[in-house]
Design goal:
Elements: H1 12-15, E1 20-21, E2 24-25, H2 28-60, E3 65-72, E4 75-82, H3 87-98, E5 106-108, H4 119-122, E6 129-133, H5 137-145, H6 155-162, H7 172-178, E7 202-206, E8 212-218, E9 223-227, E10 232-236, E11 242-248, E12 251-260, E13 268-275, H8 279-287
Pfam families: PH_UBFD1_C (PF25343), ubiquitin (PF00240)
Protein name: Ubiquitin domain-containing protein UBFD1
GO molecular function: cadherin binding; RNA binding
Length: 293
């Protein structure tokens, strides 16, 4: 078909009738601009997709968690916590749950757990059990605010008070037991050393009657079991008001120890030939960090 020239000259519009649609003319330059606009409009969608992918990657980087049970006052608390968090961070979490201040908490996992240890290093395992020993703030404040009782003393207590300046091992009532010598089956004592409590009961010690005594610590029940041949007394640790101890002269690897169970010194339960290396651990296990008396 022959093209008909017009007065406008030999333009693209006159030469190519395919560019004419419904009376609108689109030049090559307009087409290029339209294509560029389309590319710009699509660009943000790709950028948004990248951002979404980055967020998903960040969410996936969750610290490894471990599930275990914390037992406090016979109540079980199911805990999920970061495996590489420290024991101190766990204590802060437990303070909100159990109401026991961090500084008053003792966590027993495989022995006493140190604050700077991670849960992994301390021995926490999935489904395992952690014992929490401590006193709630209300109980601590109640003890601090309680008035100091002035007990009525009879003649025996006065004489005991007057002889209190004399070393325990030189007092007559203690010499009766000490003069029998070191029991053959008592656990070995070590002078000048502090060790944690062993995983077995402390045995071979004597009471004021010369009978054999063993101590079993039950932190999960907050109890100290004092066993003799005749019976086992299960003492609540909170019932023990204070603990006194002195090394035995000429046998400083052993101590005399008194557990005060009442308001006066006359209520002390005496133990003889306590291995010196465990004395501080016994006080810490029974009295904890809050030793008011």
């Amino acid at each position: 078909m022959d093209y008909i020239a017009s007065g406008k000259g030999d333009t693209t519009e006159n030469c190519d009738p395919n560019l004419i649609s419904n009376g609108n003319t689109k030049t090559a330059l307009e087409k290029q601009i339209a294509d560029n606009d389309k590319e710009i409009a699509e660009a943000p969608a790709e950028s948004a997709a990248c951002s979404s992918e980055s967020i998903e990657d960040a969410v996936c980087e969750i610290p490894e968690q471990v599930e275990f049970t914390v037992v406090f006052n016979k109540v079980k608390h199911e805990i999920t916590f970061a495996y590489d968090a420290t024991v101190l961070e766990l204590k802060a979490h437990l303070e909100r749950i159990c109401g026991v201040p961090q500084s008053a908490q003792k966590l027993i996992i495989k022995g006493m757990a140190r604050d700077n240890m991670t849960l992994r290093k301390a021995g926490v395992v999935k489904g395992g059990k952690v014992m929490l020993v401590g006193s709630k703030m209300d109980d601590i404040l109640a003890v601090k605010s309680a008035p100091k009782a002035i007990p009525f003393q009879d003649v025996d207590e006065k004489s005991s008070s007057q002889s209190s300046k004399e070393p325990l091992c030189m007092q007559k009532n203690h010499r009766k037991v000490l003069d029998k010598g070191i029991p053959p089956d008592v656990m070995p004592g070590i002078k000048g050393v502090k060790e944690p409590l062993p995983p077995i009961p402390l045995s071979g010690m004597l009471n004021k009657h010369g009978g054999k005594v063993r101590l079993t610590f039950k932190p999960e029940q907050d109890q100290l079991w004092v066993g003799t041949k005749e019976r086992t007394e299960k003492l609540a640790m909170t019932s023990i008001k204070s603990i006194t101890s002195e090394p035995i002269k000429d046998h400083e690897e052993y101590h005399i120890m008194g557990l005060q169970l009442g308001a006066t010194e006359a209520s002390r339960y005496w133990l003889y030939w306590v291995p010196a290396q465990y004395v501080e651990a016994i006080k810490d296990a029974v009295l904890g960090v809050w030793q008011f008396f």
